[in-house]
Write a structure and sequence with these properties.
Distance between the termini: 41 Å
CATH superfamily of the largest domain: Amino acid/polyamine transporter I
Order of helices and strands: HHHHHHHHHHHHHHHHEE
CATH class of the largest domain: Mainly Alpha
Strand order of the largest sheet: 1-2
Strand content: under 5%
Structural class: mainly alpha
CATH architecture of the largest domain: Up-down Bundle
Largest sheet: 2 strands, antiparallel
Shape: globular
Number of helices: 16
Helix content: over 70%
Number of domains: 2
Number of strands: 2
C-alpha cells in the first residue's frame, strides 16, 4: 500500500477503535448530571464537555503520534524534570489516583448496589474487583478481548434504546433557568473529569502499532488517518453523550445540584425501561468498567516500568496500583470526583499547552518558549485552585476568559512570548543540537 493511499475501511476501523478508547463506561455519569444542572442550556454545557473530552483527546492522540507514542519525549522540551513530572501526573490521574479507583466505585454504585442493595459491603467488593483486575492484567486473557468486542456494541445498543425512548417519551420537563452560572465552563470541568486526553496519551502507542501494521508509515499520513478517524469517533461520542445530556435536562425538574451522579443514569433507565433495563445497564457497565480498569492498569504498569528502565517491574507496579486503587475506590464516586476536581484543574492546563505546542515542535527553536508557557499555565492553575480553597488571589478572577474556564490562556501566551526573547544555550531541534 502506498503511503498516501488511505482506505475508507481503515478510517472506519480506526474511528471505532478511537471511539472505544474515548468511550468509558465510567464516563456515562457526567453528561446526565450536566444536563440536570444546565437545564435549558444543556447544549452549551455539552459543547464545553465535548471540547474538553473528545476534542482534547483527539488532539492528544495526534500530538503523541508525532513522537511515535513517547509521552516523555513529547513533554521534555519544557525541561526534562518538569516534563516527566507532568507526564507522571497525567498517568497517575488515569491510574491509581483517580480513574482506576473510579471504575471500581462506579461498578459498585451503578452495577452492584442497584441490584443487590447494601448486602455486599463496598470495601469487600472493591477488594474482589481489584483482585480480578490484578490477575487479568498480570496474565492477559483472551476472555477480556472477546468480552470487549461484544461489550461495547451491547452497551451502545442499550444506551441507544434509553436515549431514543427518553426523547420520544421524556420523563419530565426541562426547567426554565440553569441551576448554575458558567454553564460552558462547567461543561469543560465535567469533560476534564473523563480524563480521556490523558488516556489518549497513554494508549496512543497501541494505535500507532496498528497504523504501522496497516502500512501507514509516514508521520503526516498517520496524523491524517487519525484526524479523519477522530471525526468518526467524535460524531459517535456526540450522539451518545449528547443524548445522555439531553435526558439529564428532561429530569432537571425532579433533581437538584446535589443529585448523586452515579444514580442519575440508573434512575433514568429505571423510569424508561423498568427494572429489566436497569439490570441490563448495571451488568454492561460493570463489565465495561472492569475492562477499562484492566486497560488503564496495564498502561500505568508499562509507563512506570519503562520510565525506571525496568528497575521497577511491570508486575510490581500493577500490584501497587491495584492495592492503592482498592483503598481509594472504597471512598465512593462522589468523593473521588471531589478529590479529582482540584488535581485536574492543576494538571490539565500545562498538559494542554504541551499537547498544542507539540504540533509546532519543528518550528519552535527556543525551548524557553515551552518553559515560559508551561510554567505560566502551572502557576495560574495552582493560584486558581488556591482561590477555590479560600486563599485570596486578587487578579485571578479578573483574567480574560475566566468565565469559560480558560483564564490561563492569555498568561500562557505572554509566558511563551517572554520565553522567546530569553536565549537558550543548548537548543535541541529534532535530533540536531544547535546554539541559539
Amino acid at each position: 500500500m502506498g503511503n498516501n493511499s488511505i482506505k475508507a475501511k481503515d478510517i472506519m476501523v480506526f474511528g471505532f477503535a478511537l471511539f472505544a478508547m474515548f468511550f468509558g463506561a465510567g464516563n456515562l455519569i457526567f453528561p446526565p448530571y450536566l444536563g440536570i444542572v444546565a437545564g435549558p442550556q444543556w447544549l452549551t454545557g455539552f459543547i464545553g464537555f465535548t471540547l474538553a473530552d473528545a476534542g482534547l483527546a483527539l488532539l492528544a492522540v495526534m500530538a503523541t503520534t508525532k513522537f511515535n507514542g513517547d509521552v516523555n519525549k513529547m513533554f521534555e522540551r519544557c525541561g526534562r524534570k518538569l516534563g516527566i513530572m507532568i507526564g507522571c501526573a497525567d498517568i497517575l490521574c488515569i491510574g491509581p489516583l483517580l480513574a482506576i479507583p473510579r471504575t471500581g466505585a462506579t461498578t459498585y454504585e451503578m452495577g452492584i448496589s442497584p441490584v443487590f442493595g447494601t448486602s455486599i459491603p463496598v470495601f469487600i467488593f472493591c477488594i474482589i474487583f481489584f483482585v480480578i483486575t490484578y490477575v487479568l492484567t498480570v496474565k492477559p486473557s483472551k476472555v477480556i478481548d472477546i468480552v470487549g468486542q461484544f461489550l461495547t456494541p451491547a452497551l451502545l445498543i442499550t444506551l441507544a434504546v434509553i436515549i431514543v425512548k427518553g426523547i420520544v417519551t421524556p420523563l419530565g420537563k426541562v426547567i426554565d433557568e440553569p441551576m448554575i452560572t458558567g454553564v460552558f465552563a462547567n461543561g469543560i470541568g465535567q469533560g476534564y473529569q473523563t480524563m480521556d486526553a490523558f488516556a489518549a496519551i497513554a494508549l496512543a502507542s497501541v494505535l500507532i502499532v496498528s497504523l504501522n501494521d496497516k502500512g501507514y508509515t509516514s508521520q503526516a499520513v498517520k496524523i491524517k488517518v487519525i484526524l479523519k478517524s477522530g471525526i468518526v469517533a467524535c460524531v459517535g461520542l456526540a450522539l451518545v453523550y449528547g443524548g445522555l445530556c439531553y435526558l439529564g435536562a428532561t429530569v432537571s425538574s425532579m433533581n437538584g445540584v446535589d443529585a448523586v451522579q452515579t444514580q442519575v443514569i440508573v434512575s433514568i433507565t429505571q423510569g424508561l425501561l423498568g427494572s429489566v433495563g436497569k439490570t441490563l445497564l448495571a451488568l454492561a457497565v460493570a463489565l465495561a468498567c472492569l475492562t477499562t480498569a484492566i486497560g488503564l492498569t496495564s498502561a500505568t504498569g508499562q509507563y512506570f516500568a519503562n520510565l525506571t528502565n525496568g528497575k521497577v517491574s511491570y508486575e510490581k507496579v500493577v500490584l501497587a496500583v491495584c492495592v492503592f486503587s482498592a483503598v481509594v475506590s472504597s471512598l465512593g464516586v462522589g468523593m473521588i470526583i471531589k478529590l479529582a476536581s482540584p488535581i485536574l484543574a492543576i494538571v490539565y492546563p500545562p498538559s494542554i499547552v504541551l499537547i498544542v505546542l507539540a504540533f509546532f515542535n519543528e518550528k519552535i527553536k527556543n525551548d524557553n518558549i515551552y518553559k515560559g508557557a508551561v510554567y505560566m499555565a502551572l502557576l495560574i492553575s495552582v493560584l486558581g485552585v488556591a482561590e477555590g480553597f479560600g486563599v485570596k488571589v486578587p487578579f485571578i478572577n479578573s483574567l480574560p476568559l475566566h468565565n469559560v474556564g480558560f483564564n490561563w490562556l492569555v498568561p500562557v501566551i505572554v509566558g511563551g512570548v517572554v520565553g522567546k526573547f530569553i536565549p537558550c544555550k543548548n537548543q535541541k531541534v529534532g535530533n540536531l543540537e544547535k546554539t541559539a
